[in-house]
Write a structure and sequence with these properties.
About 55% of the residues lie in helices and about 10% in strands. The chain is mostly helical. The chain binds adenosine-5'-triphosphate, (3R,4S,5R)-3,4,5-trihydroxycyclohex-1-ENE-1-carboxylic acid and magnesium ion.
């Protein structure tokens, strides 16, 4: 979902794995030749953006050794799952309340689906994100691995997801991907260089 930490956590994972990092929103901007997703929505349409997003995900899906931060809405098109399933997909499951707090802090100008004039950015973001979460239903749950911030906070013995650092979240992502790989032997042979323990230690040294 928007603001869940895909770019922040994705860059950490790419660094420790020695992979390249790509942000699919940025690749769509480059492909269309416009400086922002917001402008693509405004000048063209959301449908035009979604078509280009699928093309970018298709192109990325034939590459290896990369971490991709997808757009938050990539989950809604079934064709995108064909592409995302060429690799391992990770759902950063962040409570809507925490997303709205983060987004209210940085503003909504770069997120066209949330960008409405409002005196109370937190409540506006919370309302719209709740609607999107409802509409998207179980779409995020198609991901191979789920990283639940509530579960990490509970494991750490507090219930406060706002205390979790990107490092905590990246380590949990490595753990959950490792679990998925171990449960799927055919995938195991394709991702031979995933060493959860040593990669997690390296996250802590960044
Ligand atoms: N663990 C965290 N705790 C608090 N703030 C965070 C955390 N991770 C990321 N952030 C902040 O939340 C905002 C969104 O993070 P980020 O840009 O990584 O998310 P994203 O999923 O890539 O969002 P986008 O929808 O813009 O692509 C940023 O301002 C970032 O600094
Ligand atoms: O959740 C969404 O639908 C979106 C998320 C962003 O990453 C962008 O892809 C765009 O703003 C739409
Ligand atoms: Mg991002």
């Amino acid at each position: 979902m928007m603001g869940s930490g895909k770019s922040t956590v994705g860059k950490i994972l790419a660094e420790v794995l020695g992979y390249s990092f790509f942000d699919s929103d940025k690749l769509v901007e480059q492909a269309v030749g416009m400086p922002s997703v917001a402008q693509i929505f405004k000048v063209h349409s959301e449908a035009f953006f979604r078509e280009n997003e699928s093309n970018v995900l298709r192109d990325l899906s034939s590459m290896q050794r990369l971490v991709v931060a997808t757009g938050g809405g990539a989950v809604i098109r079934p064709i995108n799952w064909n592409y995302m399933k060429k690799g391992l997909s990770v759902w950063l499951d962040v409570p809507v309340d925490a997303l709205a707090k983060r987004i209210a802090q940085v503003g909504t100008a770069s997120r066209p689906l949330l960008d409405q004039p409002s005196d109370d950015p937190y409540t506006a973001a919370f309302t719209k994100l709740s609607m999107l979460a409802e509409q998207r239903g179980e779409a995020y749950a198609n991901a191979d691995a789920r990283v639940s911030l509530e579960e990490i906070a509970a494991k750490q013995g507090h219930g406060d997801v706002s205390k979790l650092t990107p490092t905590d979240i990246a380590i949990e992502a490595l753990l959950q991907v490792g679990n998925f790989v171990n449960e799927h032997p055919t995938i195991h042979s394709q991702v031979g260089d995933l060493q959860v323990d040593s990669h997690s230690r390296r996250v802590q040294t960044l």
